[in-house]
């Protein structure tokens, strides 16, 4: 865990400066996620990073607990929340597996589940901290249907070298079918799942605790 935290702490300043690469997809994700939030909801976000998503969704719910492995990432989030006058977000240093007890109405897991090494354990923990009928909202990189997808082929070739030199984190290459099956195994019912917009390599999935 310490090595993982060190990696994300090291890149935190650059991560905070860099603009969002695909703003269209990000806006779609935010708008779709807003549809699952209510003013009285307690929300947990795992892998919250610098708090960008939490800050944009804070006005849609009662409180967000934003967690991340990186203290440096969360420092940026706390500063942004202070500067923006947002008072209903708490920031906690936690791994994705180490979720607070809750209970929560919604768990957000945007761009994090492909970075965890034990997906079943993370999904089981999310199920445990959700209220009955609560939802897990994720956006996750999944293996493209076609092995000829250029970005995927480049990443598969380059990733082991970058990881060897400490320049990239662990990345899981789940197929969509295997990823969705993991939700069912953890006791979730998938409410919606798809690529928005079409062609986007990250899968937006909403699953309800049954």
TrEMBL record:
The keyword Methyltransferase applies. SUPFAM superfamilies: S-adenosyl-L-methionine-dependent methyltransferases. Keywords: Methyltransferase, Transferase. It comes from the Bacteria. GO terms for molecular function: methyltransferase activity. It holds the Pfam family Methyltransf_31. Gene3D superfamilies: Vaccinia Virus protein VP39 (3.40.50.150). One of its GO terms (biological process) is methylation. Residues 40-142 form the Methyltransferase domain. This is Class I SAM-dependent methyltransferase. It comes from Cognatishimia activa.
